[in-house]
Automatic annotation (TrEMBL):
GO terms for biological process: biotin biosynthetic process. This is 8-amino-7-oxononanoate synthase. Residues 41-380 form the Aminotransferase class I/classII large domain. GO terms for molecular function: 8-amino-7-oxononanoate synthase activity; pyridoxal phosphate binding. Keywords: Biotin biosynthesis, Pyridoxal phosphate, Transferase. Pathway: Cofactor biosynthesis; biotin biosynthesis. InterPro entries: Aminotrans_II_pyridoxalP_BS, Aminotransferase_I/II_large, AON_synthase_class-II, PyrdxlP-dep_Trfase, PyrdxlP-dep_Trfase_major, PyrdxlP-dep_Trfase_small.
Length: 384
């Protein structure tokens, strides 16, 4: 063991002592809306496969066809030899879906956020960033060097107060929000945010990871039809069933990212199989209003049941429905009890969520039936 290994050992011992040890466990696909773990099929309330597309034959089929035609890998980064016609056509299709001038593919949503932010800030050194307290960890990875002001979750009066009092001398100001918050399942008021951004001459960046495919007309996200949003990102890894992400906005924005975004320039272009799956999902998603309505009805059924059983669902209005528990150990115990009853509902605890707000994050899918919600509510029982 060298001295670095000793440090690792010590750091891991601290994680264990804090009760925050995490490890990887395998799970395999089961029937729709189900997952197999330790040889048992469980109803899956923890995956983000909101429309049940992850195993759709059109996605898997097109992924295979494009790999067979174009190869398993794209061979180089986008600016060298990695760009195929398929990348450009898909980016045009994403821009049309999002109603923007242009779009760029990224390897993942995490990478898109972590890489696009520093690139944006490089265009305006010293820019001030105003972010909702609950924005995703990937933003913080890109904001290490930024002047950041965090406003209370979804509290637009607080945002306005900060905009009026902080960073007024900054060369530019950037507001960061999600359209649907990943752990609370509530929404931002994007029309009001666009108005605030316009009045304060700020740039508005919206993460649509959990709205893309699910909300807005034809699943185009909550940004659809709202003028004044400067940059939208989203992932193909959740409702769209596969992998990868996009950043969409003006041609100027995308030109800048192609020229300045390290996480776009210095990484290998997304491979053909991934492009094929995304292309197929973009064909299917606009046609899935029935599935979206079913999903919304399931979420409503769950929220009504949770409220009747004494659980706070933290203002959720989407397919992500938290059941607040509070203490970490209680959330873990409840999750374990549900697993015994045949349900996978992961406990989410600090540091992912604030201390004292450990919860079950119940992620619904159009592959679920009303009966699955009833089984879940019965297993949860009345809040202790
Ligand atoms: N943004 C948000 C709000 C997310 O919840 C996630 C995924 N957990 C990401 C970005 C990252 O997306 P991906 O999984 O595609 O890396």
């Amino acid at each position: 063991m060298n001295s670095f290994d000793e440090r690792l050992e010590h750091a891991l011992a601290k994680v264990r002592a804090r009760g925050q040890w995490r490890s990887l466990r395998a799970a395999e696909p089961g029937a729709p809306g189900r997952i197999v773990r330790d040889g048992r099929e469980l109803i899956d309330f923890s995956s983000n496969d909101y429309l049940g597309l992850a195993r759709h034959p059109l996605l898997a089929g097109r992924a295979g066809e494009w790999a067979a035609r174009l190869g398993a890998g794209s061979g180089a980064s986008r600016l060298v030899t990695g760009t195929r016609e398929a990348h450009l056509a898909l980016e045009a299709k994403i821009a049309a879906f999002k109603g923007t001038e242009a779009a760029l593919l990224f390897a993942s949503g995490w990478q898109a956020n972590a890489a696009a932010l520093p690139a944006l800030l490089a265009a305006a050194p010293g820019a001030a960033v105003f972010s909702d307290r609950l924005v995703h960890a990937s933003f913080h990875a890109g904001l290490a060097a930024a002047r950041q002001h965090r406003f209370r979750h979804n509290d637009l009066a607080h945002l306005e107060q900060l905009l009026d009092s902080r960073g007024r001398d900054a060369p530019a100001r950037l507001i960061l929000v999600e359209s649907v918050y990943s752990m609370d399942g509530d929404r931002a008021d994007l029309a009001a945010l666009a108005d605030i951004a316009r009045r304060r001459d700020a740039f508005l960046f919206v993460d649509e990871a959990h709205a893309t495919g699910v909300l807005g007309p034809q699943g185009k996200g909550l940004s659809a039809g709202i003028a004044g949003i400067d940059c939208v990102m989203g992932t193909f890894s959740k409702a769209l069933g596969s992998f990868g992400a996009y950043v969409a906005g003006s041609r100027r924005l995308c030109d800048w990212l192609v020229n300045a975004c390290s996480g776009f320039i210095f990484t290998t272009a997304p491979p053909p199989a991934v492009l094929g799956a995304i292309d197929a999902a973009l064909d299917l998603v606009p046609t899935m209003d029935t599935e979206r309505a079913h999903l919304a009805a399931l979420a409503e059924r769950l929220r009504t049941g949770l409220a009747a059983q004494g659980y706070d669902s933290l203002g959720s209005t989407t397919q992500i429905v938290p059941a607040l528990v509070g203490a970490e150990d209680d959330a873990l115990a409840l999750s374990a009890r549900l697993a015994e009853a045949g349900l996978l509902a992961a406990a989410i605890r600090p540091p992912t969520v604030p201390a004292g707000t450990s919860r079950l994050r119940l992620a619904l899918s159009a592959a679920h039936g009303a009966g699955d919600i009833d089984v879940l509510l019965a297993a949860l029982g009345t809040r202790a």
